[in-house]
């Protein structure tokens, strides 16, 4: 009597069950790392060419609104590209389920793309926090004269207390901190009060030795410059927050669409024309390399 042994279907055995809605973490992690890597490349390129929504540098206050809008638009475009690539990676390498392909399969691919998007956002937020902490670490170039001094007005405070010479024992940190708190009120609806202005004139006269009219002109000039600087900083913060929120929301859509496209490519279904052309060209190049090595 002979017993016929049938080889197990490795492909079918390796596929998850139909009722399994658990995520496959390998494609999720791979997609998130891909999205983070592409984001880092595009953000580095933008920083190199000078695109940015906000900056602590005094020269940034002269940037035009067009540059702000261009920087925000670039942030949205890089989000679409990076999260689209990450979603495609997650859908392309995901192991298909046992059920025949349908809308449920595309939904599962899309959910893996969303999971990769969420993981990439968390990784990006953690990395941004570390970078911001390192950048804001006090050093000889960025440390303000006083811990209570508003850093956004450091340039204005330098101009306010500028003098050809200071007494050897002069301690300007308390004066700078107090003047900075007064100048912060320049962006309010009422602006700097007359009492605060008179006190600033008195403070500048005592520190720099300027005469009354010269001290008043300097105080008025610094108050106007402080109001402009605070207005630019507030506008940059609003544009940055809006651009980041918009980029992340559209990134989720791109990750879902990319994962669905990756799933269709994985299952051999029709895909976009540019993707099909790129895949054909890659396969032809790989075939040429195989012929050269054989």
Characterise the protein shown here.
This protein is mainly α and 294 residues long. Helices cover 68% and strands 0% of the residues. The chain is built from nine helices and no strands. Helix 3 crosses helix 4. The N terminus is likely disordered.
Residue share in helices? Answer: 55-70%
Strand content bin: under 5%
Strand runs, count: 0
Question: What is the first-to-last residue Cα distance?
Answer: 46 Å
Series of secondary-structure elements, N-terminal to C-terminal: HHHHHHHHH
Separate helix tally = 9
- What is the averaged pLDDT score? 75
Rounded to an integer, what's the Rg over CA atoms? 30 Å
Structural class determined from secondary elements:
mainly alpha
What is the molecular shape? rod-shaped
Low-confidence parts, pLDDT < 50 over ≥5 residues? 1-10, 139-145
Largest sheet: none
